[in-house]
Amino acid sequence: MFLTVNIGSSSLRLGWHDGEAGSATTAPFDGKGGATVLSRHIGQFIEAQGNATPTAVCHRIVHAGAAYGESCFIDDKVVAAIKANSPLAPLHNPLALELIEACRALFGAAVPQVAVFDSAFSHNMPDYAALYAIPARLGIRRLGFHGIAHHLMWQAAVKRNPQARRVISLQLGSGASACAVRDGRAVDTSMGFTPLEGLMMNSRCGDIDPGVLLYLQQEKGLSVSEIEDLLNRRSGLHGVSGGNTSLKDLLLLDDDQSKLAVDMYCYRIRKYVGAYVAALGGLDAIVIGGGIGEHLPEIRRRCFDGLAFLGVEMDDCRNASCDGSGGVISAPQSNVTVEVVVLDENRFMADEAARLFAQPAR
Ligand SMILES: Nc1ncnc2c1ncn2[C@@H]1O[C@H](COP(=O)(O)OP(=O)(O)O)[C@@H](O)[C@H]1O
Ligand SMILES: CC(=O)OP(=O)(O)O
Ligand SMILES: [Mg+2]
């Protein structure tokens, strides 16, 4: 029996996995209340499972640095790596550390804890995609995140069509990212050294000219922590719209800033799709996941309409009826299959833990 703990930037997902069976719960979580609130959620969830003690607890770990490319048991070294990388993933790593601590307090040190890394799927991108054009001696490499989601989306594409060799996956949740996958290998992804790069997100800026950061510091006098807060918590949809992070709401609003936020969000996705078609040398499938990807047909329409020249032809009816459920939303004649997939990251994490336990040398 595995307890899975998946902290996203807007939610806490808990799962209880007993072979194929299991149960799950999702609680909205905005980071407020920290360890106390997180422990309470876990305590209530475990109570609902009859207060059983899990065989192990598995955590989604967003950023432990480039040294960790595969799931592993959490020891002091792993905890230190998560701590050391906390400044690079301030919305995730500090909470993950609190959760590891909370689980140790709840279940005791004898219950092993497992780290499933969100950077694992894009861990081995080609150097030309993984590096920035800065001196190599700095040792800075793009890692990419949302790897559990992108891995599952690639699997879904191949399950639907085993001939799908070139796949673009789009994780559109509170954080958002795109991934280009060729023959099962992530060859590029939009998040980079940190989960700030790439697509526009609920409260994160995504791609930005690094000169802006210098300007904010040198000319506007912002401190490092003010810039960190600005880019992670006050930018993206929130920043452009003037405080709203809900695309569902923004689609209904008629003011210029709300409309601009939606336009920018969709435009950047289209831009990345175009870039990744070029990177992949063509395209067989687009897979979309995450709360926004699952629930907002109008956003999907705006992202993919008019891309017939890339072989992407949407089916309006299929798209409109796909709300909170998975399914193909491209037209039958479309060369590229566009599919929405409801992702179960926690199940993936439990499978990783089972795999670790099955290995002979523990
Ligand atoms: N029913 C819904 N309708 C519209 N948007 C939704 C719905 N459910 C979730 N979302 C949006 O999805 C995002 C959260 O997605 P999710 O994948 O759960 O995020 P994360 O894992 O990053 O915390 C939020 O921006 C939220 O507004
Ligand atoms: C890595 C990341 O941004 O995750 P989430 O979208 O769950 O916040
Ligand atoms: Mg998520």
UniProtKB/TrEMBL annotation:
* GO MF terms, alphabetically ordered: kinase activity
| Compartment annotation | Cytoplasm
Q: Which residues bind Mg(2+)?
A: 345
User: Nucleotide-binding among the record's keywords?
Assistant: yes
How does the cofactor attach, per the note? Mg(2+). Can also accept Mn(2+).
| Catalytic reaction equation(s) | acetate + ATP = acetyl phosphate + ADP
The metabolic or biological pathway listed in the UniProt record of this protein is:
Metabolic intermediate biosynthesis; acetyl-CoA biosynthesis; acetyl-CoA from acetate: step 1/2
- List its EC numbers: 2.7.2.1
Which sites bind substrate?
A: 60
Which residues are recorded as binding ATP?
A: 291-295
Pfam families xref list? Acetate_kinase
Which coenzyme or cofactor does it need? Mg(2+); Mn(2+)
User: For site (Transition state stabilizer), what residue positions does UniProt give?
Assistant: 146, 204
| Subunit composition and interactions | Homodimer.
What's this chain's function?
A: Catalyzes the formation of acetyl phosphate from acetate and ATP. Can also catalyze the reverse reaction.
Q: Which family does it belong to?
A: Belongs to the acetokinase family.
HAMAP family to which the protein is assigned, alphabetical: Acetate_kinase (MF_00020)
Q: What is the protein named? A: Acetate kinase
Protein species of origin: Kordiimonas lipolytica
Top-level taxonomy: Bacteria, Pseudomonadati, Pseudomonadota, Alphaproteobacteria, Kordiimonadales
Q: Which gene encodes it?
A: ackA
